[in-house]
Design goal:
Blueprint: E1 2-4, H1 11-20, H2 28-47, E2 52-59, E3 62-69, E4 74-79, H3 83-92, E5 97-107, E6 113-121, E7 129-133, E8 136-137, H4 141-150, E9 158-167, H5 168-177, E10 182-189, E11 191-192, E12 198-199, H6 205-210
Parallel strand pairs: 1-10, 4-5, 4-7, 7-9, 8-9, 9-10
Antiparallel strand pairs: 2-3, 5-6, 11-12
Length: about 220
């Protein structure tokens, strides 16, 4: 299932507009905060799909019969671009466990690139809800590689993928590999360049959040 948030007009459209706008992107803190906001909205929507169970809560004046999450999710992200989106979800799922994947595109002189994945840390995922944040879903190759590695830590009961901008090709590739996943995309673009960049997209989310980098 794919949820395209910008399809139904809301404040998400405003945040996506700012993320894309070259005149606004120079405000690095604002860029990060807009990513966080998208993560917060997605966390709230995902919380509606999760299982709940009855619980008794002691108040100063009596007992309250409540509904509480059956389990806390595991929130994962891919270094470094995913951190603001991840932080937004963690703001809402503040009791969640976390997983981290270090992966990046290693560019070659001919313009091609390889995906280097060097580090993964993750709790037991068995029977839990896994939510992974990746701001840009282009071809889906790095996300699929990360998920393949995370599943070495157990089989989740449900998986949600949260992205700011997705490309239709990346969505199709992810669904082909994992048809039961739920994708939450703030917006979806149709074009992908030969070098694997989303058009119109927004540029390099990691650089816009944290500054340019040197690569050797």
């Amino acid at each position: 299932m794919v949820h395209h948030l910008a399809k139904n007009n809301s404040l998400v459209n405003e945040w996506v507009n700012d993320l894309r706008n070259v005149e606004v992107q120079t405000q690095r803190m604002r860029f990060r905060r807009n990513m966080e906001r998208i993560g917060e909205v997605c966390a709230y929507e995902i919380s509606k799909t999760m299982p709940y169970e009855a619980a008794e809560i002691n108040t100063p004046l009596g007992i309250y019969n409540a509904q509480t999450l059956s389990h806390q999710p595991v929130i994962a992200t891919i270094f470094r671009a995913g951190f603001p989106l991840f932080q937004g979800m963690l703001n809402f799922f503040d009791k969640a466990d976390c997983a981290f994947v270090a992966a990046y595109r290693k560019h070659n002189q001919d313009g091609s690139f390889n995906i280097n994945q060097e580090y993964v840390t993750c709790p037991d995922l068995s029977g839990r809800t896994l939510i992974i944040a990746d701001p840009m879903l282009a071809t889906g190759a790095s996300l699929i590689m990360a998920l393949d590695e995370l599943f070495e830590y157990g089989q989740p009961a449900a998986v949600h993928v949260v992205v700011a901008i997705a490309c239709t090709e990346g969505i199709e590739n992810l669904i082909q590999k994992y048809p039961d996943f739920t994708i939450w995309a703030a917006d979806i673009d149709d074009e992908l360049t030969a070098k694997g960049y989303i058009v119109p997209g927004l540029g390099d989310a990691g650089d816009l959040s944290f500054g340019s980098k040197m690569q050797f």
